[in-house]
Design goal:
The protein is mainly alpha-helical and 132 residues long. Helix content is 72%, strand content 0%.
C-alpha cells in the first residue's frame, strides 16, 4: 500500500514508530497551513499527505496525486514538488507495488519526498515573504 501504514508493515516498524511518522506528516501540514497563504499548494499537500495518512490505499487512490499535480501547475518555485509528483505518477513505481520485498515501498517513498518538497517550498517561501 502506498501509505505510511504499508511502509511500517513492510519495514516491521512498531506502532509507535508508525504513529511518530504520521505525526510528522500532520505537524508538517499544520506548519504549512499556519504559515502559507497559497491555497493551491496547501490543497496539493493535503491530498498527498492524506494519501500517506490513510490506512488502506491502493494504486487507484494515487490518482489524487494527479489532482495535486494539477493544483501545483506552474506555481513559482515548485519544481521539486512538481517533479516528485510527476515521477510518482509514472508506471514504474506502480509496477513495483506487488513486489514482496522492499521495492514495493518505492511509491511510498516518492510520495513522502513529494510531500517534504512541497512543505519545504511553502515554509521557505513564506519565510522569505516575511523578511521582505
Amino acid at each position: 500500500m502506498p501509505n505510511l501504514h504499508g511502509l511500517a508493515a513492510l519495514m516491521g516498524w512498531s506502532g509507535l514508530i508508525e504513529a511518530l511518522a504520521m505525526s510528522a506528516v500532520v505537524a508538517g501540514f499544520l506548519a504549512v497551513v499556519i504559515r502559507d497563504r497559497g491555497r493551491s499548494l496547501t490543497l496539493a499537500l493535503a491530498l498527498s499527505g492524506g494519501l500517506l495518512l490513510s490506512y488502506h490505499a491502493y494504486s487507484q487512490d494515487c490518482m489524487l496525486l494527479l489532482a495535486a499535480l494539477g493544483l501545483v501547475g506552474q506555481t513559482e518555485g515548485a519544481v521539486g514538488f512538481r517533479r516528485m509528483l510527476q515521477v510518482s505518477l509514472m508506471p514504474l513505481p506502480y509496477a513495483l507495488l506487488p513486489a514482496q520485498n522492499g521495492w514495493s515501498s518505492v511509491l511510498t517513498l516518492l510520495i513522502i519526498g513529494a510531500f517534504a518538497a512541497g512543505a519545504r517550498l511553502a515554509l521557505v517561501r513564506e519565510s522569505t515573504i516575511h523578511r521582505a
